[in-house]
């Protein structure tokens, strides 16, 4: 580097990211990243200061409490019904494992009856048949080549050499074991 300053970049190519533009929402002071609903004109949002009086607030509180109590009651009824259903299942011998197996069986039946499964099954069947045919052809070719090699003069010469070497080794080994007058008779 010669100590000169680099050339400046044009602002049109590199906008200043420190300045907000009209497309950004500045939420640095917000606890959430969503915009303030009062600024967007959310029709479901009602500012509590817009309520007429204390009596209206009290009616809304009473309605909220009633709704929450109904929710609590419904949860208790649901829990009671679930417990009764579990007891009935137990009495019928229906275990969670059996339910799982039955559900899995039904799902598998649905999968098997689907068109996608049938098409895939057919495609795989055809592919399997073609693979089997190709394997048979390959093995036939290998078998034929091995037969040709076995019948070749080179292989017969090699086979005779290996056979005589093995025979010599047996005779030599037997001679050491049974004495010099022992001869091995090949059957």
Would you kindly provide a brief summary of this structure?
The chain is mainly alpha-helical and 187 residues long.
Structure description:
- With 187 residues, this protein is an all-alpha fold.
- It has five helices and no strands.
List keywords for this structure.
about 190 residues; mainly alpha
Total strands: 0
Q: Which stretches of 5+ consecutive residues score pLDDT under 50?
A: none
Radius of gyration, in Å, reads 45 Å
Count the helices. How many? 5
| Mean pLDDT metric | 77
Give the proportion of residues in helices.
55-70%
| Biggest sheet architecture | none
Structural class: mainly alpha
- Give the DSSP E fraction (strand runs of 2 or more residues): under 5%
What's the end-to-end separation, in Å? 94 Å
Please tell me what the overall shape is: elongated
Order of helices and strands: HHHHH
Topology:
Blueprint: H1 37-40, H2 54-92, H3 96-113, H4 115-151, H5 153-178
């Amino acid at each position: 580097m010669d100590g000169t300053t680099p050339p400046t970049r044009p602002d049109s190519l590199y906008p200043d990211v420190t300045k907000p533009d009209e497309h950004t929402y500045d939420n640095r002071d917000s606890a959430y990243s969503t915009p303030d609903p009062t600024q967007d004109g959310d029709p479901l949002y009602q500012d509590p200061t817009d309520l007429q009086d204390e009596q209206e607030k009290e009616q809304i509180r009473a309605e909220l409490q009633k709704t929450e109590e109904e929710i609590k009651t419904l949860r208790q009824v649901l829990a009671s019904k679930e417990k009764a259903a579990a007891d009935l299942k137990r009495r019928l011998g229906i275990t969670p494992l059996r339910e799982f197996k039955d559900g899995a069986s039904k799902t598998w039946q649905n999968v098997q009856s689907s068109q996608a499964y049938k098409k895939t099954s057919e495609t795989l069947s055809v592919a399997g048949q073609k693979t089997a045919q190709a394997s048979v052809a390959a093995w036939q070719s290998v078998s034929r080549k091995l037969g040709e090699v076995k019948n070749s003069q080179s292989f017969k010469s090699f086979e005779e050499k290996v056979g005589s070497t093995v025979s010599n080794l047996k005779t030599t080994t037997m001679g050491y074991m049974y004495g010099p007058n022992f001869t091995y008779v090949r059957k």
